[in-house]
Amino acid sequence: MAPVIEAEHIGKDYGSLTAVRDLSFVVEPGEVLGVLGPNGAGKTTAIRVLTTILPPSRGRFSVAGVPSSRSREIRRRIGVLPESAGYPERQTGQEYLTYHARLHGHTRASARAVVAGLLDEMGLRPRRGSLIASYSRGMRQRLGIARALVNDPAVVFLDEPTLGLDPAGQRQVLGHVRRLAQERSAAVLLSTHLLTEVEENCSRVLILNRGRAVAAGTVSEVVRLAAAPRSGRLQVAPEQAQLAAAVLAGVPSVARVTPDGRPGSLSVAFAAPGGGAEDVSLNAAVRALIDAGIVLISFQLEGARLSDAFLAMTEAA
Amino acid sequence: MATVEQAADLQVERDGPPGWAVVTAQELRDLWLGGRGLALSVAFSLLLSVVAYLVATNTALNFLEHRESVNLVLQIAIAVGGLLTLLAGADAVSGERERGSLESILLSPVPRGQITLGKLLAALSLWLAAYAITVPYAWFLGRGVGIVGDALVTGGVVGTMIAVFLASLGLIVSLFARSNRISLSLSLFLLLALFAPTQLPSNAQQGWAGELLLRMNPITAGEHYVGKILTNGHAWGEDVSWLLSPLVAAVVLPAAALILGSRFMQLRGGVVE
Asked: What is the CATH number of domain A5-217?
């Protein structure tokens, strides 16, 4: 299947400031791509370029098979929840959605039907007649997602959709994001700086830093690419701690074993990570413990999470 | 042969109403059901009531002939009605920008020129309301001297041209202003500058230079024409050349607003992105 987003060497300048430079990536249908980056990395600018709000300074892209030169046609096929979207306080949720459905060419009757479905889907039906001024932050975000779906888009861009939401609100919004990809087969581009959101919801990740893509791929590919130094924290029965330390010291890929202060708890540093060799090292260490008859109560790998890769890539740049 | 985009445009227009009509309808709803238009209209009618009461009863002012009284009320209606449309236009883009709701409209497939047109038409509704409010005052003051019809027609024609001009001017300022406050302040400043020639001493308004100044300014030229018809009892065609600049302004400014709107309606004011 053809990609729904194809970006080739996109750049965007604001005067002498380059916000996005040489950005290239693809998104497949039904895929959730997480766009990560620290503040000012160029996430929002990249989204505004791809959604035709800003013209690119360089490069080209296509969305849903439509080239960037046909911006109106692209806007027909995308749904967008902008960062910090404002809402008309004196409109009701239903009026707001109906207005946007009609801007997308729906007749009064079809707009009414589409809006009724979206209000149900987003759990806003009971408050459809209330002024938006009375909506909570979470309700506004769900209203914004509903607005992004009035034209049944092939691609949905969500810029920081969970910003300012409490954990329950975040879970609710992310549930909608997953359903967008699963049930509507829409590709979703999710911009965020919350790494757990990406780990839990995205099939692929794009990390931006200072306007440049520094990594792209699945979460494990990006983590491997980052080659963050890895270590592990393991817990054994206190009476087996000494034996465990001796066994691990004999494993060639283990660089260092140190007690971390708590009974039965050891900290393990692995040698020469990178290129996938670290996974073999971990397996070898765990196997050596099991072969020695040591009961492994817990084992926590550090340096293998997206957050480690993210920090390694964005701080190093 | 139609391109894919043109075919899609036709599809939307076949299915739903044109974008400008959707924008106009929503803007009208926001303006009138939101209460802003109603509040401005009430304030306008209070102002006209005070003026009408003074010209009809005040000992210092009631020396005015009926014709002059009607002229005065109509001139005030045109000026204040124009001011209302100017303010509505000046808030149209920069206000949305500041409230954060412009981006979602720009993300719709409606061409930006059509969004501008929708906002312009909604702003003009304030002039229509002001005109409707003026009708009973003009009738009350002009009854018995046979100028009510003339007053309503000239007031309607000249007022509409000036309202279209000022609403478009406000919209253009709003497209480029960095903030809503700047947009409103600059629009008001421009309006004051346009009204300034009316405050010149009468000898400064004489001669070819003074007349040229009055004729070139759409507001002073329009009000001069209304005065000639109502106060001096001139025929319609006698001073029609005075309508040239209001007419040009009422054609050129909205056309400029639509062209500039389609090119420069952007997320950030004051810059070309």
From this structure: 3.40.50.300
